[in-house]
């Protein structure tokens, strides 16, 4: 009896795999993400995304979060920040131009959201990126502009 209890105690516990239910079906998730990316520089309303997916706003929001792990607004914000980082690194656009291109209402809002996300303001982040790139290119001078 003691041996059978010991065997049971050593057996790995296998939990049944839960089916991921409640998320968007793939075509709806792709559609919503593509609409967001296509309109990143504009105001993106969750109600418009829900309507495009033929769902109520609340059902769409719950399903989107279930599928992506983020609310629609958080996913939009994440995409805007990713686009801003790409523009900061690859263009000489001002931070004001970048903020508007990425759908932020103004540079102050962009700087606030960027700093909250990255722990550093976008100007300092740009300077850090330029310095890291110039370390790869001998003789280059970093030029940091807002």
How would you concisely characterize the structure shown here?
This protein has 146 residues and is mostly helical. 64% of the residues lie in helices and 0% in strands.
Helix/strand layout:
Blueprint: H1 2-10, H2 26-38, H3 46-52, H4 57-68, H5 72-90, H6 95-101, H7 107-118, H8 122-136
Helix pairs in contact: 3-4, 6-7
What's the total helix number?
8
For this structure, what is the CATH homologous superfamily of the largest domain?
A: Homeodomain-like
Spell out the helices and strands N to C: HHHHHHHH
Number of DSSP strands? 0
- The portion of residues assigned to helices is 55-70%
> Which residues form runs of ≥5 with pLDDT under 50?
7-11, 14-18
CATH class of the largest domain: Mainly Alpha
Largest sheet: none
Radius of gyration: 23 Å
First-residue to last-residue Cα separation = 75 Å
What is the percentage of strand-forming residues?
Answer: under 5%
Q: What's the shape? A: elongated
* Count of discrete domains: 2
Structural class, by secondary structure, is: mainly alpha
Describe this structure in words.
With 146 residues, the chain is mainly α. The protein has two domains: 23-69; 77-146, Arc Repressor Mutant, subunit A. Helices cover 64% and strands 0% of the residues. Helix 3 crosses helix 4 and helix 6 crosses helix 7. The protein is elongated, with a radius of gyration of 23 Å. It holds the Pfam family HTH_18. Regulatory protein of the TOL plasmid xyl operons. XylS activates the xylXYZLTEGFJQKIH operon required for the degradation of toluene, m-xylene and p-xylene. Its main location: cytoplasm. This is Helix-turn-helix transcriptional regulator. InterPro entries: AraC_XylS_family_regulators, Homeodomain-like_sf, HTH_AraC, HTH_AraC-typ_CS.
């Amino acid at each position: 009896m003691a041996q059978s209890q010991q065997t049971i105690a050593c057996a790995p516990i296998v939990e049944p795999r839960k089916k991921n239910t409640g998320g968007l079906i793939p075509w709806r998730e792709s559609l919503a993400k593509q609409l967001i990316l296509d309109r990143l520089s504009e105001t993106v309303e969750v109600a418009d995304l829900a309507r495009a997916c033929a769902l109520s706003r609340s059902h769409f929001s719950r399903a989107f979060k279930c599928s992506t792990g983020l609310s629609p607004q958080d996913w939009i914000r994440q995409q805007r920040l990713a686009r801003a980082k790409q523009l900061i690194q690859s263009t000489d656009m001002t931070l004001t131009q970048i903020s508007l291109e990425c759908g932020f209402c103004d540079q102050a809002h962009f700087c606030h959201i960027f700093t909250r996300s990255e722990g550093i303001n976008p100007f300092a982040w740009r300077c850090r990126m330029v310095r890291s790139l110039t370390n790869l290119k001998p003789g280059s001078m970093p030029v940091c502009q807002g």
